[in-house]
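User: Fold this; tokens only.

Assistant: Input:
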Amino acid sequence: MSVRRLTVDDWDELWPLVQGFGTGLTQADSRELYEELVDGPRWAAFGYDDDGLIGYAVVQDYGPHIRAGRRHQGRLHDLYVHPANRRTGVGRALLTAVTTWASTRVRYLEWQAHHERSAPFYEALGHQGTPCPQPDYPTFELEFPVPADRGSELRHVILNTPIGEPDGIDVGAEISRERAEER
């Protein structure tokens, strides 16, 4: 059981989860888009693998913003866990992978969540949504600190290794240990 970066080869296992989350695209159209995005430098897709994918998350690094300048925004597009596997730590592990990836690339990470179906999950993890033009979908935002030793530049590191089980592991400490070993 682990969270890992997804690749093009994961499509057949990912498609049922994408359908479960809800899509208006055909499988062929969705696959074509997935193949384009998953290998792109500004996208990351993570899956929770337990002898097969049971959850996934997709995040994007928007880069600098035309009106906000170097605000450097990221967006969590999807976070979905198969209903049979909810309330087991899978969603928390996926969100940890997303925020770890985003913290090395962007200054801000935002997402919207339905006020009844998914906002309570994020609130239980300590995040607070704010109203947005779609009243049923509060906006959540995280701001990541920019390390003083790197000035305004953010380190570009892509998480490619499994990060462990969702419960009973300090994912942040594990990633910090791996980064220290890389140096």
